[in-house]
Amino acid sequence: MIPSTMRTLQLESFDGPEGLFVRELATPQPRAGQVLVKMHTAAVNPSDLMFLRGRYGVRREPPTTPGFEGCGTVVAAGPGLGKLWVGRRVALATQGNFGTWAEYTIASAVQVFPLRKSISDAQGAMMLVNPLTAWALIDRAVRDRQRGVLLNAANSALGRMLIRTATARGLTSVAIVRQASQVNDLKALGASAVVVSSADDFANQLADACRTHHAGIGFDAVAGTMTGAMLKALPGGARVLVYGALSLEPVQVDVGTLLFGNRVVEGFWLTEWIRQYGMTRVVRAMVDIQGTLAHAMTTEVLATYSLDQAAAGIRAYQNNMGAGKIILRMA
Ligand SMILES: NC(=O)c1ccc[n+]([C@@H]2O[C@H](COP(=O)([O-])OP(=O)(O)OC[C@H]3O[C@@H](n4cnc5c(N)ncnc54)[C@H](OP(=O)(O)O)[C@@H]3O)[C@@H](O)[C@H]2O)c1
């Protein structure tokens, strides 16, 4: 029995967690090609923090329900879809009008993926955005015939996935972190070398590590001066894919590094990757992510919050993202 109303988080102004309120709204109805999902859990990612401030690539005017991914059970399908999806536990992504930080949400039927029993609701909430990005970036390195990759923000959930997926695909990884206390942990995870960005001779250490471990492509989640530093440390002809802006700074690259080394900086956005490469590759990736790469794609959860506690939880995550991921649990 689907209730006529549901509890949802509403972003009422672009003020970060301070703009979030729990509200009771009409349960949405799925239209053609859509499913209604009873949410179990939802993820909170850096992209959500940007969305809450109106600074993300996808922008909806308040009041709106945030949340780009989560895990739940399909409870109804729109006209034309039949009963195929109903009753299935799924991971879902949504960038439409309804977010995942609610008791129910609407998703396009092509943005829901059945979850294996072995995947918990908590992991299921984080099964799409970061794992697909890690898969896509490492796939790019493999298709470019690289032997090793360079990455920063290496202790992030996605950074850890990149290290483990690189290892699983037979690539080396050179990892950049901000804190020396993370070095041993990431080496134990499989990183070939870990370099601390505050070291006095950071540039030399990075170039040495890239040379030693044959890193030929960089994955940059930080931007600012870090993009140029990575590009310079890589060999001539290399490219850096910028996929995040954790520093909140514009990309800065020394012109000589670009010109004389024939190096390239390009952007990576998962939404665009899916558009370009299509659902066949996404489905293939999801089979790997829940199968052979399931261990590589696991994310540690620091804490779980109810809808009522969500704003406090998101504030805590925002103030110390390095401490780990939080999950929203609906019931
Ligand atoms: N382009 C795409 O399609 C796409 C898709 C998915 C994710 N992303 C991006 O991937 C990045 C990582 O996401 P996540 O979910 O894995 O993050 P997360 O686990 O929530 O972790 C955030 C990490 O960011 C690091 N960090 C924060 N500010 C930093 C700064 N100024 N310089 C260097 N490191 C900083 C923290 O490092 P400490 O441990 O040192 O505190 C922490 O490890 C984000 O930028 C996200 O937007 C992009």
The portion of residues assigned to helices is: 25-40%
Proportion of residues in extended strands: 25-35%
Considering the protein shown, what is the CATH homologous superfamily of the largest domain?
Medium-chain alcohol dehydrogenases, catalytic domain
Task: Name the quaternary structure.
Answer: single chain
Provide a count of the helices. Answer: 10
Secondary structure class reads alpha/beta
Alpha-carbon distance between the two ends: 16 Å
**Rg, Å, rounded:** 20 Å
- Helix-strand string: EEEHEEEEHHEHEHEHEHEHEHEHE
Number of strands: 15
Low-confidence stretches: none
Name the overall outline: globular
Mean pLDDT: 96
CATH architecture of the largest domain: Alpha-Beta Complex
Main sheet attributes: strand count, strand direction, barrel closure: 7 strands, mixed
CATH fold descriptor of the largest domain: Quinone Oxidoreductase, Chain A, domain 1
Ligands bound to this protein structure: NADP nicotinamide-adenine-dinucleotide phosphate
Domains counted in the coordinates: how many? 2
**CATH class type of the largest domain:** Alpha Beta
